[in-house]
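User: Just a sanity check before I run the rest of the batch. Below are the structure tokens for the first item. I only need the designed sequence back.
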């Protein structure tokens, strides 16, 4: 029976009232206060629990060995995993800690007492090109710290990298094999440097991460401020758009999918004493490493394993939530997916270790609970797969994922969704957007699900897959298999909607449950279509950074002012004065750039007062330019989500193509 207009109006009125109440809460409450986080979190959790009770009591068919009963229970099983993960997240997010004040005090004390213990900087590299690894090397050499040694840990034993290190003043380390992957590389460096520099503190950087000049001054004092702190971890920031941001034209309006984790979750986990290492941009005490036998290598997530091994010995990881290093985000969809599947498998491996936080001794309930939360994060991914394929299964196979009409979902499901959406936007300070978050999860859900299935059979013994970085990405790329997958899902959802009206078996009037599944099909189609667009990769050019500074141009004896609007390693975009002195475009000239001095240049293109200059810096100038651009590139990519801009990019990509 189709619901009456009065019942629809009544439920919609309640939903609108709930939405208004949630928006008022988001306006009045402050996410920096624990009491407000508890109040808003409890409100969102209450709606989710009510929804879960309705799902369990009213939407499951009677149990029998039939396709419909088994499909409904498979769906609700993974849905409840997602709900459990969300409820655990809300509890974790009740707390949060900002250690910047503590770092300020420690930095000031170190400066007053002139205490700067030696630091060994380990830069882990496998096969990255020079254009990538030079950013980490030069950034590390430019650290504003009086006592540090830079070691480049070259796990592919490249002669050109050895020569480059000698030229710039870094030390080059290799080993005869690649046993133990990244952890093995770090342990080799740990042993080699113990016989030489033997610094009591180690900074670990991936090959694509350039540290900010004050990285060590911000972190070393914090590390030594309390005896049980073994690791100070900082967040990862990126100077390029990830494949989702780039391919949806949303680099300035949609945050990368790690921002919520780094900026919101990790400070919350730190408040519980359960923050963990994320593999790069952290410092660690050498003596604590020696106590646990070096970097653990039993799981491919050596970073997560390191923090939990330290916890077992009573040593904490703390989170300093400041932009102190900048790296290269995965540039292509395959690399993006590879990275996530590696993190997934690594988390599962840590959970299955005999001496790990789930099965081993020496861990508190809170520590085990936080690791379980991380495992559930990956176990949620199959739910996205089921969410996408459920509408076609209903319309083409006659099997509903759950038995409910749209009015019941309006009564129980919509308040839960509204509560979660508004709460997440509030707690994250505008780092979430529903459609784009769903598309982000969709991109990886099939690969992660396959990884989980393979982990059930063989969780250990799989090789460490390095995320490819750098290389030529100047041409469009199409990832056919993934595009076909999402294209079929979008098309089948669209076909389901059409079939509901033209099928010879269709009823003369759409039932309430059919209407609910029509809405579901439309949402699944939109998510799948967004993911489909991501599979068509747009070309990437050189990283260009917006600036606004005074510059000068000279050709011959004449000099004129200009504004520098953008910089890269090979070009500068200049806004010139009307009295531009360059009148011979075929001859070289010089441009004066802040911190670099006069740099040789040539005209690439010119339009009115705008001039694109090709730069030919000297080796010393290029070195300064690399440090300037990549060691302080905060703000290049959006750190807050903007719905209007994100939707505009999506529409442009979907209908215009670029």
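Assistant: Here's the designed sequence for the first item:
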């Amino acid at each position: 029976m189709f619901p009456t207009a009065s019942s629809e109006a009544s439920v919609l009125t309640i939903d609108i009232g709930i939405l208004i109440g949630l928006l008022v809460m988001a306006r009045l409450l402050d996410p920096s206060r624990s009491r407000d986080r508890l109040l808003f979190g409890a409100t969102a959790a209450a709606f989710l629990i009510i929804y879960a009770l309705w799902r369990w009591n009213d939407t499951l068919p009677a149990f029998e060995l039939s396709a419909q009963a088994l499909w409904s229970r498979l769906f609700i099983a993974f849905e409840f995993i997602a709900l459990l993960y969300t409820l655990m997240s809300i509890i974790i997010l009740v707390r949060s800690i900002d250690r910047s004040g503590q770092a300020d005090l420690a930095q000031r004390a170190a400066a007053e007492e002139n205490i700067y213990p030696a630091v060994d900087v380990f830069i882990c590299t496998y096969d990255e090109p020079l254009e990538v690894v030079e950013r980490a090397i030069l950034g590390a050499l430019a650290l504003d710290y009086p006592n540090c040694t830079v070691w480049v840990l070259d796990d592919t034993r490249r002669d050109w990298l050895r020569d480059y290190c000698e030229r710039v003043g870094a030390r080059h380390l290799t080993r005869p094999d690649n046993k133990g992957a990244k952890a093995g590389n770090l342990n080799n460096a740990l042993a080699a440097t113990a016989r030489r520099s033997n610094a009591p503190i180690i900074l670990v950087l991936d090959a694509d991460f350039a540290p900010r000049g004050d990285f060590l001054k911000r972190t070393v004092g914090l590390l030594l401020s309390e005896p049980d702190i073994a690791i100070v971890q900082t967040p990862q920031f990126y100077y390029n758009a990830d494949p989702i941001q780039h391919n949806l034209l949303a680099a300035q309006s949609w945050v990368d999918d790690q921002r919520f984790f780094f900026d919101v979750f990790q400070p919350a986990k730190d408040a519980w004493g359960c923050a963990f290492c994320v593999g790069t941009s952290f410092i660690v005490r050498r003596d604590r490493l020696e106590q646990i036998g070096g970097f653990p290598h039993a799981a491919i997530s050596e970073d997560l394993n390191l923090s939990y091994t330290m916890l077992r010995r009573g040593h904490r990881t703390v989170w300093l939530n400041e932009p102190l290093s900048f790296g290269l985000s995965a540039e292509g969809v395959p690399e993006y997916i590879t990275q996530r599947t590696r993190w997934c498998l690594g988390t599962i491996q840590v959970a299955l270790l005999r001496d790990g936080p789930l099965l081993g001794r020496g861990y508190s309930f809170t520590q085990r609970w936080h690791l379980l939360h991380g495992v559930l994060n990956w176990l949620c991914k199959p739910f996205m797969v089921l969410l996408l394929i459920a509408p076609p299964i209903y319309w083409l196979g006659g099997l509903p994922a759950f038995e409910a009409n749209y009015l019941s979902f309006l009564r129980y499901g919509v308040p839960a969704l509204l509560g979660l959406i508004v709460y997440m936007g509030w707690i994250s300070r505008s780092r979430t957007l529903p459609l784009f978050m769903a598309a982000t999860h969709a991109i990886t859900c099939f690969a992660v699900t396959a990884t989980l299935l393979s982990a059930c059979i063989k969780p250990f013994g799989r090789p460490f897959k390095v995320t490819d970085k750098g290389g030529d990405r100047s041409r469009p790329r199409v990832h056919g298999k993934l595009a076909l997958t999402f294209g079929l899902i979008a098309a089948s959802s669209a076909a389901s909607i059409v079939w509901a009206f033209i099928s010879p078996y269709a009823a003369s009037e759409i039932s309430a449950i059919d209407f609910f599944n029509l809405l579901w099909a439309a949402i699944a189609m939109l998510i799948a279509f967004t993911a489909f667009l991501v599979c068509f990769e747009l070309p990437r050019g050189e990283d260009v950074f917006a600036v606004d500074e005074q510059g000068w141009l000279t050709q011959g004896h004449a000099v004129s002012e200009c504004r520098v609007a953008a910089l890269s390693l090979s070009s500068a975009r200049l806004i010139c004065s009307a009295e531009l002195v360059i009148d011979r475009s075929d001859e070289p000239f010089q441009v004066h750039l802040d911190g670099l001095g006069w740099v040789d240049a040539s005209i690439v293109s010119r339009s009115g007062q705008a001039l694109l200059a090709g730069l030919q810096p000297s080796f010393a100038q290029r070195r300064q330019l690399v440090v300037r651009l990549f060691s302080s590139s905060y703000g290049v990519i959006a750190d807050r989500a903007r719905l209007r801009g994100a939707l505009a990019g999506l529409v442009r990509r979907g209908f215009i193509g670029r």
